[in-house]
Amino acid sequence: MKCSVLLKDFLDHLEVEKNRSIRTRENYEFYLRRFLGWARNPSPSEIDGEMIREYRLWLNRQKDARGESLKKNTQNYHLIALRSFLKYLAKRDIKTLSPEKIELGRMPERVVDFLEATDLERLLSAPMQSAEEGALVPLRDKTILEVLFSTGLRVSELVGLRRDQVSIKKEEFTVRGKGSKPRLVFMSNQARYWLGKYFGARSDVSPFVFVAHDRASGGVKRQTDEKPLTARS
After folding, report:
1. Which band of pLDDT confidence, cut at 50, 70 and 90, is reported for residue 217?
2. Phi and psi torsions of 231, nearest 5°
3. Where in the numbering of this chain does the Tyr recombinase domain appear (predicted)?
4. Residue 122 lies in a domain
């Protein structure tokens, strides 16, 4: 039996049994189809250490859309998907290479730059410095910065926040991160203050915490049905 026949069963298992998101399923399918295309759709028993060595070499020589070599973390995503697929096959007693035989590439050390206290204060105060009275856009941006620095949320989590997830009184809210797993997040007094101020200034009925106000009017013009922000906003 060829691997392509088993791929859909694995992806269904990933979504239903492992409770992975649709986006994760799509990413795994992309990575695995790339491997199957390169390996000419092998059977599970044909996957061995030599094949993986050659595949890793091939990945390392691939170029992205900008003509640059694939980053190590991107190469590792391909290997993680393949390792997960092999682990699934092993659980079904299908003979194949042990997933432990696939080692991930070593990542280069990241250099982290930290903001000085004065730089952070300047950044947090920037949205309100030239704000018109009653303008919602600067107030929203100020609130976003306070919440981000207070909680360490991912941008994707922040833009997806809904009002019913937030308890200003308890200074907490619930978010769903990777794998749709819920977690409790606590905010600072500053974040709570600006969130309450932002909510109090709005008159729309959007269920989202942060929405895309009319920038042409600086957000002064209020609408009853504001659209939520996106990660690209």
Report:
1. very low
2. -65, -20
3. 110-233
4. yes
The last residue of a domain, from among 33, 68, 101 = 101
Residue 89 lies in a domain: yes
* Residues near 221 by beta carbon (within 8 Å), at least 6 away in sequence: 214
3-state secondary structure of 97: coil
Q: What is the tens place of the pLDDT at every residue in 165-189?
A: 999 888 888 887 666 678 889 999 9
Q: Is the pLDDT of residue 220 over 60?
A: no
Q: Dihedral sign, CA of 80, 63, 3, 56? A: negative
Q: What is the pTM of this model?
A: 0.53
Q: Which domain holds residue 208?
A: 117-228
Please count the structural domains in the chain: 2
Among 23-27, 109-113, 129-133, 180-184, top mean pLDDT goes to 23-27
Pick the closest to residue 191 from 158, 213, 221, 223 (CA basis): 158
Helix (H, G, I), strand (E, B) or coil at 29: helix
| Nearest to 107, CA basis, from 154, 133, 80, 72 | 72
CA distance 20 to 33: 18
Confidence of residue 39 (pLDDT cuts 50, 70, 90): very high
95 with 44: CB under 8 angstroms?
A: yes
Q: Give bridge partners of residue 36 from the DSSP assignment.
A: none
Asked whether residue 218 carries a pLDDT value surpassing 60, the answer given is: no
Distance CA 98, CA 199 (A): 54
DSSP three-state, residue 73: helix
The length of the chain, given as a count of residues: 233
